[in-house]
Write a structure and sequence with these properties.
Distance between the termini of chain B: 73 Å
Distance between the termini of chain A: 12 Å
Oligomer: heterotrimer
Number of strands of chain B: 0
Strand content of chain A: under 5%
Number of helices of chain B: 4
Shape of chain B: elongated
Shape of chain A: globular
Structural class of chain A: mainly alpha
Chains: A mainly alpha (about 550), B mainly alpha (about 120), C mainly alpha (about 260)
Largest interface: B-C, 64 and 68 residues
Helix content of chain B: over 70%
Helix content of chain A: 55-70%
Number of helices of chain A: 17
Radius of gyration of chain A: 23 Å
Largest sheet of chain A: 2 strands, antiparallel
Strand content of chain B: under 5%
């Protein structure tokens, strides 16, 4: 069945040429375009990271001057956050997988989906142009009053972010409506795959938080261009208010990043332990709980900003609450693995890395959420290490896991497991080398965003930079493996990993319309009914196997 | 008038139409109420009630908003999720405003007295 | 009427199974979009609340420069245009093309009138120098006072720079709150400091709202053109409905803006 689909029409061969892609309404093509763009910006952001780490090999000037350094870390942050990690998993994989996982033909609003992608491209162009016009040096947080007075292209960058915000909002609207209205017969809310629960919760945050970023950036632009004075202390304005505005979005934003990653985790852990997910309802409701609680804690970014003591205490107390649903998920994943039949394929290696690295990242967040310790740790490398462990050790690792998991489905090719595992190992080693030492130097007082530093911190910085170069090598291996598979990889069966979610019930790659008829939806984690078929190198339903 | 004919055809149209059709008298009644409430808002300013004035004005605005939402925007006849979306978004606005107000109202000018004198006394 | 009905039957996009699914999806999508608009304006309401809460004297003093009658007029205009819009949706559902087109035209007229009043108000502010930030240079007839310069700012750098951050030793202590001294000053009707903050908030809120009115008029204008061509009927009235929802939201926001900006006591 699957070997002969080589010549069959699939979404990749359905229509050729630039226009068939640029004006496509097919969510799968939009997902692929997003994946390519997002991966490109991951590499671009990574390039800036390599510049940062190389500069920090020595105190004082290594390869660039201080002003340029400010621009480089601003760009690293802005590109990684707005162009890679926030669209990240929802745009690249959600777009592709969500309708197929629902047995549907497309998302609710395909044209809006295309508009989302085009807005992403426009926003990206604005951001890149800002680099050329006089790269921003405010840090990705654009704090006032510096951002309203610095002579760099803040307006261009924030306009780019504003446009990207709309891309995010429209994706969120699309996902919410699709999940509400386009589930197949038999898929009640309690039968929804956990990846979709995650995307749904993410979409709630996208829809509620991003508009506040929108108004923040608008006010910043207006302040710069017209001098409206809302955030300018010299005009009676309040710069701490800017931070309230900014973090009301940007804290929920980090949950926009991690929730889809956690959704991927639920899929990977279950499939590669050959076991039904443990605590389905707990994980599903935790996703929604995280989405809601994420809005209550933004002030923990502002403990040392001049926020009132009362505000500080309230936000610190609330911050502890948001750790609870995340912990619930981790325990459920561990329970899923217990007595499972674990296969250490590439996606699973990433999932296991996530467990450790996100665990560390999350736990170190507690030090930062506690007022007494945060006063010493704020704006040090401890914070930098914390968010890299969660965002990179968590979200990026899950992104790579998702990429290796859904790659056969998206492109109909299997990659080399050996190379995949090697890359995963190098990522793990390189990552820890880069960032673990940063916890130590941060707690000893090394400030973040600093160009120059005391000599005693140099060993940590050197270790960190070596780790960064290992990471670069890892990415070369990873990308090389995947690209090579596009040309030389073994043809993928419909269900190489043995998952019970619906996207594995159609061919790899899927046909243009996904399914002729919506398939009957069962329990998405009932893996018992799938058996491995040697002849095709993939899984088939038990009855089909016995029939053959 | 065409309006009377439409009322009679209302029943058969309802079956065809996917959405509920709001009766004209309801629309006009709501409009009238909105006008009255607007005039009441303006009138209420003349009565000096101190800080209560703000809450009365907001209260009347809230009633007006509810009328517009329920009848002009069909929330009364729609599935509940639409109302949940609207009310939910308002709750988050209240959260943001509330915490920002709380914080700014409790700013401390001088954490250490005399250490950093105010720019303008 | 029957002919336009038949031509108005719409094909549903192929990814939807039934017309009902298409209809309900579209409506839900529009409602979530409205929720995002509420959050967008919510930020501005937060700025308003913070500044009014901490500097009530500024708001009490400055709102006198807004004409409450024009504000009330605009409220009535917008409410009426909401009526005509809701009525237009009803007409589309009933297949009454003539009434639909008329009501849409009236809605457009209402929106245009709103913008007209806004222009009158803005012009008044411009002429009297009642603008934001450093542009606040009032020369209004009520007090016959000429303010010739922007608020006092300690300058250590050339006047070309708009702002100056005081050196660390003086350090900004945070936002000043109302003290008893300031209240006494207000009682004697002296102009409080930082009155321009009010106008910053005023122009930001009414400006963004005005932009949404313009956007709404563009959408309704497009619906109007299509309605004249007989595109809408009982089986195809969704675009009218969606445009209506957006317009009602614009009205909702003004319902709150009006008392908060114009009717401060």
């Amino acid at each position: 069945m699957n070997g002969s689909t080589a010549v069959a029409d699939n979404y990749l061969s359905h229509g050729r040429g630039f226009r068939s892609w640029f004006f496509t309404l097919d969510h799968k093509r939009i997902g692929v375009m997003y994946l390519a763009s997002i991966f490109f910006f991951l590499i671009l952001g990574g390039f800036f990271a390599m510049l940062i780490r190389t500069e920090l090999l020595t105190p004082g000037r290594t390869i660039m001057d201080a002003d340029t350094y400010n621009q480089v870390f601003t760009l690293h942050g802005a590109v990684m956050i707005f162009l890679f990690i926030i669209p990240g998993i929802p745009a690249a994989f959600g777009n592709f997988v969500l309708p197929v996982m629902l047995g549907a033909k497309d998302v609710a609003f395909p044209r809006l989906n295309l508009l989302s992608y085009h807005l992403y491209v426009v926003g990206a162009i604005f951001s890149v142009v800002s680099i050329l016009l006089g790269a921003v040096d405010t840090g990705w947080t654009f704090y006032t009053p510096y951002s309203t007075t610095t002579h760099t292209s803040v307006v261009s960058m924030t306009l780019g972010a504003f446009i990207l915000g709309f891309s995010s909002i429209f994706t969120g609207i699309n996902f919410i409506v699709t999940i509400h209205r386009m589930r197949p017969p038999g898929m009640s809310w309690n039968r929804l795959p956990l990846f979709l629960w995650a995307l749904y919760s993410t979409a709630i945050i996208q829809v509620l938080a991003t508009p506040v970023l929108g108004i923040t950036l608008l006010l910043l632009i207006v302040e710069r261009l017209l001098g409206i004075g809302i955030f300018d202390p010299a005009l009676g304005g309040d710069p701490v208010l800017y931070q309230h505005f900014f973090w009301f979005y940007s804290h929920p934003a980090v949950y926009i990043m991690i929730l889809p990653a956690m959704g991927v985790m639920s899929e990977l852990i279950s499939v590669f332990s050959r076991k039904h997910i443990f605590g389905y309802k707990a994980i599903a409701y935790s996703s929604v709980a995280i989405a809601v609680l994420s809005f209550l804690v933004w002030g923990h970014h502002m403990f040392t900003s001049g926020q009132s003591d009362l505000g500080n205490m309230i936000f610190s107390a609330l911050t502890f609450s948001v750790a609870i649903p995340s912990a619930i998920k981790v325990f459920n994943w561990l329970a899923t693995m217990y007595k499972g039949s674990i296969r250490l394929d590439t996606p699973m290696l990433y999932a296991l890395s996530f467990l450790l690295l996100f665990g560390i990242g999350g736990l170190t967040g507690l030090f930062l959420g506690a007022l007494a310790t945060d006063v010493h740790l704020h704006d040090t490398y401890f914070v930098v290490a914390h968010f890299h462990y969660t965002m990179m050790g968590g979200v990026l690792i899950a992104f790579l896991g998702a990429m290796h998991y859904w790659w056969p489905k998206m492109f109909g090719r299997m990659y080399s497991e050996k190379a995949g595992r090697l890359a995963a190992f190098l990522v793990f080693v390189g990552f820890n080398l880069t960032f673990f030492s940063q916890f130590v130097m941060g707690s000893q007082g090394m400030p973040r965003r600093y160009y120059n530093y005391l000599d005693r911190f140099q060993p940590y910085h050197v270790l960190s930079t070596i780790g960064a170069y290992v990471l670069a090598v890892a990415f070369v291996v990873l990308a090389g493996n995947l690209i090579h598979s596009l040309f030389r990889g073994r043809k993928a069966p419909a269900n190489p990993w043995g998952s019970a979610t619906l996207e594995w019930m159609c061919a790899s790659p899927p046909p243009h319309d996904n399914f002729a008829e919506p398939p009957e939806a069962g329990d998405p984690y009932d893996l018992e009914h799938l058996v491995y078929d040697e002849s095709i190198g993939g899984y088939v339903p038990r009855t089909a196997r016995e029939g053959a | 008038m065409s309006e009377i004919r439409s009322e009679r055809e209302h029943e058969s149209r309802e079956a065809e139409s996917l959405g509920h059709i709001v009766p004209l008298r309801v629309l006009l009644a709501v409009w009238f109420a909105l006008v009255l409430l607007s005039l009441a808002t303006v009138g209420a300013v003349r009565v000096e009630l101190g800080s209560l004035n703000l809450w009365i004005a907001l209260g009347i605005a809230f009633v007006k908003a509810t009328l517009v939402g329920l009848y002009f925007m069909h929330l009364r006849y729609d599935q509940p999720f639409h109302a949940i979306a609207l009310v939910g978004s308002l709750l988050f606005v209240v959260l943001f405003v509330g915490l920002a107000l709380l914080d700014t109202a409790h700013y401390q000018h001088e954490l250490i007295p005399g250490y950093a004198p105010a720019v303008r006394p | 009427m029957r002919r336009s009905e038949q031509s108005a039957a719409r094909e549903i996009p192929h990814h939807f199974a039934t017309p009902r699914q298409a209809y309900e999806s579209g409506k839900l999508g529009m409602w979530i979009f409205l929720a995002t608009e509420v959050l967008l304006f919510g930020g501005l309401f937060a700025a308003y609340a913070v500044y009014r809460g901490n500097h009530p004297e500024v708001f009490v003093y400055a709102h006198r420069f807004l004409d409450a009658r024009l504000g009330a007029l605009n409220t009535l205009i917008l409410i009426t245009s909401s009526l005509t819009m809701a009525w237009a949706v009803r007409s589309a559902q009933l297949g009454n093309r003539r009434l639909l087109t008329l009501l849409l035209a009236l809605t457009l007229l209402g929106g245009g009138a709103f913008l007209g009043v806004k222009i009158v108000e803005y012009e008044h502010k411009w002429k009297h120098g009642l603008l934001w930030g450093e542009q606040y240079r009032p020369h209004h007839p009520e007090t016959a006072q000429e303010h010739s310069s922007a608020p006092e700012i300690p300058r250590e750098t050339p006047p070309g720079d708009r702002t100056n951050i005081p050196p660390a030793a003086i350090g900004p202590p945070g936002l000043a709150s109302s003290t008893d001294e300031e209240r006494a000053a207000h009682a004697s009707a002296k102009e409080p400091r930082n009155v321009h903050l009010f106008f910053g908030v005023y122009f930001a809120m009414t400006g963004l709202h005005g932009l949404h009115v313009i956007a709404g008029l563009l959408v309704i204008g497009w619906v109007f053109v299509r309605a004249r061509g007989g595109a809408y009927g009982p089986s195809n009235f969704e675009p009218v409905d969606r445009a209506g929802l957006y317009w009602h939201l614009v009205d909702l926001i003004w319902i709150f803006l009006f008392p908060l900006l114009y009717l401060i006591h």
